[in-house]
Specification:
This protein has about 850 residues and is mainly β. Among the domains are: about 140 residues, Neuraminidase, CATH 2.120.10.30; about 80 residues, Immunoglobulin-like (Sandwich), CATH 2.60.40.3080. The chain contains 2 helices and 63 strands. Strand 59 and strand 60 form a beta hairpin. It is elongated, with a radius of gyration of 29 Å.
């Protein structure tokens, strides 16, 4: 989200940051809560018990969370356990005397131990122990009670291990299976008294395979089987094992997912009692959730065999819009009967983590969902008939979960302040999202905030730009009475007062994204629209005058296209970034898209990039050498994860270099590129380290001019979870301001603002050095005639101090320094002439400095 003045502000140091500011992290928003569950069991009294973790109750950032309900799912009591660390419940069993044994984790990110806790029938803690190596990040995936009143735990990370404890939690024996790259997911007792383990293991060619291990009661391996699906040697196996169960015929069934051919599918594998394969089926989802993105991943979390022999598989589709819970009903030989989607909250965020069949033949399922009246996470329990149709639903968590803020854009303003833009539902009358703007001082303290509602529906601010005539323009989108979207343009004054607002659209569903101010006091907006026939989606570049009236609009891309950013270029045109499918009508591959436009919006050139089935660019900036630097995401087909995608092209769109950043985990959201004062680049985004929707961290990468990493930083762990960084700017001291959203401890989501030093560290030591004095908000430097064809007069009467040695610097719209020289003048000289005949037509910022005194002004060359 680059504003075209951003680099100018970063260079004009006195506009941005006062000397001596320390690093900080701040969140802005109203408090709210999250609860998630991972395991469901039926209890001896006919009710249910659920275990997971909560950010609402207890003492830490997350606490182990146990809920007891009656047969109708109505809460009887809940308990939390843990310290001020990250404590989460993963697995649950009821013990013989009616109490509960819980296995989970405790610790901090990157350094957890297995947490084993025993309660009585009312949930009162009786004892707890931790198991693990202090140098590793250990986890527990499942737990079973054993006939001798002890317990057996499936753990690992690294590796897959089976741990046997006595009735007091003391370790009796432990066995490891596979190597440190093996991961365990499920554990089941088998009819012969042994155990069945399911997980994932590496193969010899760099891929992954489903792993099944059968042991006896003492953990000794009886047989091991792997499941692959590569059709020939030219494919790499990419199979993940998720869950396995004993079957009524004495055999076993395992489920998981595969993306060996680049597309996520569900895999089911049936064996006999010796582990020999009987059949393997691969399934593609049959319901289209999101026409824009399709399925990103399919995660089967549970499988069970019903009393009639049929099978139920439950899990979630991970889509760019969120998580969509599903249940599949199959015959005993794997033929798909029905596919059902489940959604219980106001957002598409729902997952099923546990299932069981009730005595009446119906099913009980548990997981998490977004709040039913607000967008937080609640623990979920529902019952359904044998085909997966819900009968009743209950959610558990802190009531009043109606507070959600999220930040998208950061704009430096004069007097060292910042304007932040995003969305909120904390202050609306109906719970819908409003446009949310905050102005802060250099230390992140709020000077004012305002929310803006268009017509009572959901409104989102995506980017804000300084208006050349004063005030600011905000772009985004607003919902209409039909539940669809229009592009939204809002104009405000310096204090946030609304001046006017407009909506645009040529079809049923349009969205505005980035905005830039133009030299003629108008605005350029990047957007997406459905085409006039309603058959596809295209990008749109939109140009307005100073009052928001459309001067021209252009459709861009080939098919299923989106334009996220548009920036003025030094030659008077525009550069845009987004994504598009290829020109071929049958193509399903999405490519990263760049286009160069003339000043009237006509296309100068456009190209698709990215050697993958899916890629996009979200931001692009013109660099000081006249090239363009773009950042986005690309699907790494081998791992199934998205990676940061960097590309530098010359002025004609030819590739100079491209780089895929090998960040661990899923790096889907990469939103901003900056050219730094030292001629290098920084990029912002987020990294999802696991499939847990809360386990995201903000990410800042600095590279040299060729895209080689200099350093990288992660943010958010000490404040909350689920961090996304959307925007950044560089301060005059070389440090950075970063802005986005976070699921802060005890909240649904808040805006998140960070100030770092030049190495990306949140340092508490103030920067050193002397910066120019703060410029007045109404600069007194006079330039005339303005505009003209390149010969300007500069008045010096308001310049205090020495007028003999002046440093003159001129910046273009992209913040690039196009002229720098020292002016030697007579002491009594009141004006000087500046000749710029070779300068391209456009808007420029002039800076004049003597010592610590700084003056600036805008000038326009015809």
């Amino acid at each position: 989200m680059v504003k075209y003045f951003l680099a100018v502000f970063a260079t004009l140091g006195s506009w941005i940051c006062a000397v001596g500011q320390t690093g900080f992290e701040k969140t802005f928003g109203e408090p709210s809560r999250n609860e998630l569950t991972s395991e469901l069991i039926s209890t001896s009294d006919g009710g249910f018990a659920l275990v997971g973790y909560s950010a609402s109750y207890g003492t830490g950032s997350n606490d182990m969370y146990l809920v007891k309900t009656n047969a109708a799912g109505q809460e009887i009591w809940y308990r939390t356990y843990g310290t001020n660390a990250d404590d989460r419940g993963a697995a649950l069993q009821q013990t013989g005397e009616g109490g509960f044994i819980i296995a989970g984790i405790t610790g901090v990110n990157g350094q957890h131990d297995i947490y084993l806790l025993k309660t009585d029938a009312e949930g009162a803690e009786q004892w707890s122990v931790t198991i693990g190596n202090p140098d590793t990040d250990d986890c527990a995936a499942a737990i079973l009670a054993t006939p001798d009143n002890g317990f057996v735990i499936l753990g690992g990370n690294p590796g897959m291990c089976l741990i046997k404890t006595n009735a007091s939690g003391a370790v009796v024996w432990q066995y490891n299976y596979g190597n440190t790259e093996t991961a365990g997911q499920s554990l089941q007792a088998t009819p012969d008294g042994g155990y069945l383990l399911c997980g994932t293991a590496p193969d010899l060619l760099g891929g992954t395979v489903m792993l099944l291990v059968k042991t006896d009661a003492e953990g000794n391996t009886q047989w091991t089987r792997t499941v692959a699906d590569a059709p020939n040697m030219f494919y790499t196996n990419l199979v993940t094992g998720r869950y396995a169960i004993p079957m009524a015929d004495g055999g076993y069934l395992a489920v998981g997912h595969t993306h060996t051919d680049g597309y996520f599918k569900l895999i089911a594998h049936k064996t006999n009692n010796l582990g020999d394969a009987e059949w393997t089926n691969i399934y593609e989802p049959g319901i289209a959730i999101n026409a824009d993105y399709g399925y990103l991943q399919i995660i089967p979390n549970r499988v069970l065999q019903e009393t009639d022999g049929s099978l139920l598989i439950a899990g979630s589709y991970l889509n760019a819009a969120g998580n969509q819970a599903f249940t599949w009903h199959l015959t005993d030989n794997g033929a798909l009967l029905t596919e059902t989607l489940h959604s219980f909250g106001i957002l598409p965020l729902c997952d099923i983590n546990s299932t069981l069949q009730l005595p009446d033949g119906n099913l009980a399922m548990a997981g998490y969902t977004s709040g039913q009246n607000a967008p937080g996470f609640d623990a979920l329990l529902f019952t359904a008939n044998q085909t997966g149709t819900p009968l009743w639903t209950q959610t558990y968590g802190m009531p009043g979960n109606l507070n959600n803020e999220w930040g998208y854009d950061l704009l430096p303003t004069i007097q060292n302040n910042y304007l932040l833009a995003g969305q909120t539902n904390s202050y609306s009358n109906n719970g819908n999202e409003d446009v949310y703007l905050l102005k802060t001082d250099p230390a992140g303290n709020v000077l004012w905030w305002k929310n803006y509602d268009y017509q009572g529906f959901s409104d989102v601010a995506w980017e804000v730009a300084p208006a050349n005539g004063g005030g600011y323009a905000v772009s985004g989108f607003t919902a209409n009475s039909n539940g669809l979207n229009d592009t939204y343009l809002l104009k405000i004054d310096e204090d946030g007062n609304k001046l006017w607002e407009k909506t645009f659209g040529i079809s049923a569903n349009d969205r505005g994204w980035g905005i830039s101010a133009t030299p003629d006091n108008g605005f350029a907006i990047a957007a997406q629209v459905s085409d006039t026939l309603g058959a596809s989606m295209l990008g749109m570049a939109l140009k307005t005058d100073a009052d928001g009236n459309v001067q021209w609009s252009r459709l861009l891309g080939y098919n299923i296209a989106v334009i996220y950013h548009i920036k003025p270029t030094s030659d008077g045109g525009y550069i845009v970034a987004g994504r598009s499918r290829q020109q071929l009508a049958a193509s399903t591959e999405t490519k990263a898209y760049l286009a160069k436009l003339y000043s009237n919006g006509q296309t100068e050139w456009e190209f698709l990039f990215g050697n993958s089935t899916w890629a996009r660019f979200f931001d692009v900036t013109e660099t000081s050498d006249g090239a363009f630097m773009a950042v986005g995401s690309i699907l790494d087909v081998a791992s199934g994860n998205y990676k940061m995608y960097l590309l530098k092209v010359n002025g004609g769109g030819g590739i100079i270099w491209e780089n895929t950043v090998p960040v661990e985990g899923n790096n889907f959201g990469n939103y901003k590129v900056l050219e730094t004062a030292d001629g290098n680049y920084v990029f912002t985004g987020n990294v999802e380290l696991s499939q847990n929707p809360l386990n995201r961290q903000g990410y800042l990468l600095k590279t040299n001019t060729y895209g080689n990493e200099l350093w990288s930083r992660y943010y958010g762990n000490n404040v909350g979870t689920g961090t996304v960084l959307y925007d950044a700017c560089q301060n005059a001291d070389g440090g950075f301001m970063l802005f986005g959203g976070i699921l802060a401890n005890g909240t649904t989501s808040d805006c998140y603002l960070i100030r770092t030093d030049s190495d990306g560290q949140i340092s508490q030591n103030p920067p050193t050095g002397v910066l120019p004095q703060q410029a007045d908000e109404n600069p007194t430097l006079q330039i005339w005639p303005n505009p003209n064809n390149g010969i300007f007069n500069i008045g010096l009467t308001a310049l205090q101090g020495n007028r003999q040695n002046l440093q003159l610097t001129v910046f273009n719209l992209s913040g690039q320094k196009v002229l720098e020289q020292t002016l030697i003048t007579a002491p009594d000289k009141t004006a000087l002439q500046l000749q710029l005949p070779g300068l391209q037509p456009g808007l420029y910022t002039l800076q004049l400095q003597n010592g610590y005194n700084l003056q600036y002004a805008k000038m326009v060359k015809w």
